[in-house]
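Please, structure for the following, as C-alpha cells.
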Amino acid sequence: MQSRDKAGLKILVIEDNKDIAQNIAEHFEVAGHQMDFATNGKLGLELALENYFDLVILDLTLPNMDGLEVCTQLRQKSERHVPILMLTARDSLDDKVKGFDLGADDYLTKPFALAELEVRCQALSRRHQLQTNHLITIGSLCIDRQQQKVTRQNQQIMLKPIPFKILQVLAESYPRVVSKSELCQKLWGDDPTESDSLRSHIYQLRQSLDKPFEHPVLKTIHGVGLALEKDTA
C-alpha cells in the first residue's frame, strides 16, 4: 500500500465544467496522481465500471445522467466498492443526506480549495484500503469479516447473520452515518422488506453489542440513520 501511495492515486473525475476539470488535472497530476476525465454522467459511469480507479470525484449536475443517478448505478453494478467523493455547488443538508443515502463516501461543496480536495481524496483512499482488510478495528471493537467473528474489549460477541451484516456495513462506512434505506439496499438488494424487520435486527445487534458494556457504540442519528463511534472504555 505504501508503494501505491508514493505512485499516487488513479482517479476518475466526472465533471462537465472544463475549467474546474483542468484545474483539478493540473494540481493532481503535478502531485503524481493518474487522472481520467468524463464530461457527462453516462460516459463517467461506463469508465468507472470498465476500469480500476482508487476513487471517483463526481459532480452532481451533469448532462445525460446526473451525479445522483451515476452514484446509484455505480453502487448497484460495480463488483467492488469504488469510493465516491461528490463535488457540487449544492450545499443544503438535504442534498448531503441524499448523496450519502445513495452511497457517496464524502462530500465537498464548490467553491473549494484544490489542496483540500487532494487531502480528502488521500484520506478517503487510505480509509478504503484499511476497510478492504478482513479485520476492521474501531476502538475496542474488532470485526473479522473472513470468519464473521466480533469482539469488543476482548470479549466475543455472538451475532446472527443479519445483525452481523448490519455491523459490517456500519464498520465499513465508519465514521459516516448510514441511512436505513441504504442498509436495506445492502442487506436485501431490490427485494422489499418490512421496516419492522430491519428494526428487529437492529434491536438484536444493539442488545448484543452494547447492553453488556457501559458505553454504547451503536448510535442512532435521528432523521438520518445509524453510525458507529469508538468505545470510550
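The first helix runs from residue 2 to 7. The domain at 2-131 is CATH 3.40.50.2300 (Rossmann fold).
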